[in-house]
Amino acid sequence: AQSVAQPEDQVNVAEGNPLTVKCTYSVSGNPYLFWYVQYPNRGLQFLLKYITGDNLVKGSYGFEAEFNKSQTSFHLKKPSALVSDSALYFCAVRDMSGAGSYQLTFGKGTKLSVIP
Amino acid sequence: GAGVSQSPRYKVAKRGQDVALRCDPISGHVSLFWYQQALGQGPEFLTYFQNEAQLDKSGLPSDRFFAERPEGSVSTLKIQRTQQEDSAVYLCASSLALAGATTDTQYFGPGTRLTVL
């Protein structure tokens, strides 16, 4: 069975500082990894995904994520945080080797607060 | 429309009532998914449609939950005899192609927040 862990319920960062939101995963086969962002009373917005190839993936709004197979991690990063980045961030995985590979399995989410 | 839309955005039901939640996927998207998001949790998979065919309903919590997509576009999630534990946000997502065969991205709607009193 596939799973995702987001070890931090909340991350606080000062505006202008770099931010990291952590994610680790567990799958039996090859993972496809995703980051989504959720603003209050809104649905999930797609940020970026890793399928194969370059371990550093660039996405929307200046976000990027680094895939590390040996550490089974896919941490979300941004060089300089904005107050408008404050939201709930979800990491998700699809195990492309098994039945039901279309299912996304999500972590519990990390609340990011960017302090002015 | 440009994205996935869902209605109603908010629904309050008395315990025992039946509810119907609607999803309009992105035009032309073959795959449609329903997820349930409990308070403080990540979304959890409920069911998957490929066009009008419901290929996976393994995540539906009980036989009170029923989903359909009769013409391969709009989908309805129905919950019969609602209970308090059904209170959650119900998210619909769609993707362009066959979900099991591609690296498609699922695009989500704003969700319907269901509160069962």
Characterise the protein shown here:
The complex is a heterodimer of chains A (116) and B (117). With 116 residues, chain A is mainly beta. Chain A is built from no helices and twelve strands. In chain A, the strands form three sheets. In chain A, strands 2, 5, 6, 10, 11 and 12 form a six-stranded mixed β-sheet that branches. A four-stranded antiparallel β-sheet of chain A has the order 3-9-8-7, with no helix packed on it. In chain A, strand 7 (56-58) and strand 8 (64-68) form a beta hairpin. The mean pLDDT of chain A is 93. With 117 residues, chain B is mostly beta strands. Chain B is built from no helices and eleven strands. Chain B has strands spanning 5-7, 10-13, 19-24, 31-37, 44-50, 53-56, 65-68, 75-79, 88-95, 107-108, 112-116. In chain B, the strands form two sheets. In chain B, strands 2, 4, 5, 6, 9, 10 and 11 form a seven-stranded mixed β-sheet that branches. In chain B, a hairpin with a 6-residue loop joins strand 7 (65-68) and strand 8. Chain B is globular. In chain B, 38% of the residues are buried. The model of chain B has no long low-confidence stretch (mean pLDDT 93). At the A-B interface, strand 5, strand 6 and strand 11 of A face strand 4, strand 5 and strand 10 of B.
Characteristic key phrases:
heterodimer; A: 116 residues; mainly beta; 6-stranded mixed β-sheet; 4-stranded antiparallel β-sheet; 0% helix; 52% strand; globular; B: 117 residues; 7-stranded mixed β-sheet; 11 strands; 47% strand
Q: Which word captures the global form of chain A? A: globular
Shape of chain B: globular
Low-confidence stretches of chain A: none
Count of discrete alpha- or pi-helical segments spanning 4 or more residues of chain A: 0
Order of helices and strands of chain B: EEEEEEEEEEE
Note the main sheet of chain B.
7 strands, mixed
Pairing-aware structural class of the strands and helices of chain A?
mainly beta
What is the terminal separation of chain A in angstroms?
41 Å
- Helical stretch tally of chain B: 0
Helix content of chain A: under 10%
Biggest interface, residues from each chain? A-B, 24 and 28 residues
Order of helices and strands of chain A: EEEEEEEEEEEE
Q: Estimate what percentage of residues of chain B fall within beta strands.
A: over 45%
